[in-house]
Task: inverse folding
């Protein structure tokens, strides 16, 4: 039978095409299914009465696809199991596919044989180019939830099946795969499958939302729910923001809600809602309460709930941004301080630097531990510059600054054609780019568990396999890692691999917080001189700087000095040049007589270090204005909220 020459048939042409090619069928589909029948013949050259030649991947190919989708499988597996529990007794098989129509997971009813014989198994290909119109393949093409019922399948051999399918999208709006529920020999009209389809859609949205929350667990996230009517799971919009208030990720409901406007990723939140991110944080008390707002485009009434991640990296840079800070390839010696300059006149740091110099070029991985702002990356660059690898590349990857879905390709790279949407020329990963030089893994504690396993294997075997590569690439790198987290505690909670810790931490160097350094006065003068030659501090101003607890460490000190230099007359920095809040925060704190400002007890019980005390005093001085307090310390509002959570500090009106 010769295919129709129609490329983009209209409804009348499509009806004629169906009559010509499917005269024996008792159904006359329209829309998506009719278009799929046309594609199956015209584009794919399939015969609707041909044999159902199932295409099943080999065991090795199945393992490869499952490894490439390990994170997706782990998250979606709970949804597959949940849906199966509700439909298996009714005779439904539940399948999870990738974006190419290959099944990655399946749950079959008790009588398995009829389903396995029909190809409802892991490793089967269900894209339209192989089997024509079917639930998974056609849903992937149309990117809509649908039911393909019995004779609506292109191949007559598949007319026993009724399949209800929903596509699954990742937090960047890209198609990730499908969730499918299929039954065999189910009598009754297509309309009887409507409830099954709704269940499939519900679980697909649950998978998407779980994927979103996992990917952006270290970001500020918003949940937007319509309030004009009873809302369901499918209408809840989830947005992830960087610390500048720009959207870096969203669930499918958010993309659908804003598809009529400009691109969602990268938009400022105040172009969607009538408040800036700092105002949202302040009005919600850091996520302690939800807000009722109207959207700017349709003025719809919505409930907005914020989530500040617990234990997230306390950094002033956007933690949800795709581009890792300082992730560029640098083949020249970086313009940064050397090890002696960084150690200053602090005896402890000087001893650490002496040990480091003995460890250089011995092939030992180095782990830098310290609070945010203590200069871990500067030390990593200095170590690189002092080594024999100084002429090689210094490549940095911030494990907390890249969405988890992208870390694997960033770290290991991929070859041409590895996956849908990949760069046609492939991409070298950070490991390969660092060959012959130094790889700096910042915030290593935020590396996903499955990538910890892969990294451990790479470090042990000293070779890397890019995604889609057939041959390994020998690896010759100095690995330097850094973290502000307690990795030993993470090992106890099974969130960090113990064997990887010992592989990365052959040499562990702890960088002291600024408040712990014995050379603060020298450091202040040195940084001031570097900022503006000739500037000097009056004694009272120096005393105030020395008394500050510096929760933001050297980063906060630099911001304060730059502020002071800008206000100084003729280079003379007095008390009037310092942030007024800084001088108040350095005063001795009175004992609390009431639990105001501290959740669950007195000051002595709840705040045991100077950082917490300084935060509490600054918040009181600013009458609990978080924006003003964060500006005082030179840190972001999200970081300040995290530190408040760390020390158990809550606003007085938020106490129960």
Result:
């Amino acid at each position: 039978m010769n295919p129709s020459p129609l490329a983009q048939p209209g409804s009348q042409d499509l009806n004629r095409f169906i009559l010509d090619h499917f005269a024996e069928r008792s159904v006359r589909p329209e829309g998506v299914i009719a278009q799929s029948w046309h594609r199956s013949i015209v584009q794919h050259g399939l015969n609707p009465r041909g044999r159902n030649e199932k295409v099943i991947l080999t065991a090795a190919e199945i393992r490869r696809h499952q490894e490439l989708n390990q994170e997706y499988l782990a998250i979606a597996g709970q949804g597959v199991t949940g849906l199966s529990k509700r439909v298996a007794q009714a005779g439904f098989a539940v399948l999870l596919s990738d974006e190419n129509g290959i099944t990655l997971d399946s749950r079959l009813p008790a009588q398995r044989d009829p389903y396995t014989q029909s190809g409802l198994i892991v490793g089967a290909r269900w894209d339209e180019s192989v089997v024509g119109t079917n639930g998974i393949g056609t849903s992937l093409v149309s990117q809509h939830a649908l039911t393909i019922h019995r004779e609506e399948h292109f191949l007559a051999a598949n007319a026993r099946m009724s399949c209800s399918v929903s596509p699954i999208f990742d937090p960047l709006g890209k198609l990730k795969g499908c969730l499918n529920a299929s039954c065999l020999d189910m009598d009754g009209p297509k309309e009887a499958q409507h409830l099954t389809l709704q269940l499939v859609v519900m679980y697909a949205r649950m998978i998407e939302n779980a994927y979103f929350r996992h990917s952006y667990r270290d970001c500020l996230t918003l949940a937007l729910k319509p309030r004009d009517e009873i809302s369901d799971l499918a209408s809840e919009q989830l947005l992830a923001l960087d610390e500048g208030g720009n959207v870096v990720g969203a669930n499918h409901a958010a993309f659908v809600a804003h598809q009529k406007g400009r691109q969602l990723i990268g938009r400022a939140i105040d172009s969607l809602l009538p408040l800036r991110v700092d105002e949202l944080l302040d009005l919600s008390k850091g996520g302690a309460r939800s807000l009722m707002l109207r959207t700017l485009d349709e003025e719809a009434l919505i409930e907005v709930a914020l989530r500040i991640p617990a234990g997230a990296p306390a950094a002033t840079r956007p933690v949800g941004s795709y581009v890792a800070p300082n992730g560029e390839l640098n083949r020249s010696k970086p313009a940064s301080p050397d090890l002696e300059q960084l150690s200053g006149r602090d005896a402890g740091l000087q001893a650490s630097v002496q040990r480091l110099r003995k460890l250089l070029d011995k092939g030992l991985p180095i782990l830098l531990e310290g609070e945010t702002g203590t200069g871990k990356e500067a030390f990593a660059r200095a170590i690189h510059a002092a080594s024999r690898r100084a002429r090689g590349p210094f490549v940095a990857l911030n494990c907390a600054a890249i969405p988890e879905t992208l870390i694997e390709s960033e770290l290991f790279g991929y070859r041409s054609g590895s996956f849908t949407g990949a760069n046609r020329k492939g991409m070298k990963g950070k490991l390969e780019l660092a060959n012959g030089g130094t790889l700096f893994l910042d915030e290593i504690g935020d590396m996903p568990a499955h990538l910890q396993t892969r990294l451990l294997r790479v470090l042990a075997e000293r070779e890397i396999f890019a995604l889609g590569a057939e041959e390994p690439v020998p690896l010759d790198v100095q690995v330097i890692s850094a973290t502000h987290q307690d990795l030993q505690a993470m090992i106890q909670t099974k969130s960090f691999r113990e064997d990887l810790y010992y592989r990365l931490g052959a040499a562990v160097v702890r960088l002291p917080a600024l408040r712990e350094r014995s050379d603060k006065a020298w450091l202040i003068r040195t940084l001031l001189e570097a900022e503006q030659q000739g500037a000097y501090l009056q004694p009272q101003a120096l005393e105030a700087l020395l008394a500050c607890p510096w929760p933001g460490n050297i980063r906060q000190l630099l911001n304060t000095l730059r502020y002071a230099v800008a206000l100084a007359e003729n280079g003379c920095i007095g008390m009037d040049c310092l942030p007024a809040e800084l001088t108040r925060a350095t005063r001795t704190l009175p004992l609390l007589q009431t639990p105001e400002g501290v959740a669950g007890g007195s000051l002595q019980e709840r705040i045991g270090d100077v950082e917490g005390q300084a935060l509490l005093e600054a918040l009181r001085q600013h009458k609990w204005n978080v924006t003003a307090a964060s500006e005082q310390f030179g840190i972001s509002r999200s970081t300040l909220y995290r530190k408040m959570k760390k020390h158990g500090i809550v606003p007085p009106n938020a106490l129960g």
Remarks:
- The chain is about 40% helix and 15% strand.
- Residues 1-7, 311-335, 419-423, 588-608 have pLDDT under 50 and may be disordered.
- The chain has four domains: 54-210, 216-307, 339-512, 515-578.
- The two ends are 76 Å apart (CA to CA).
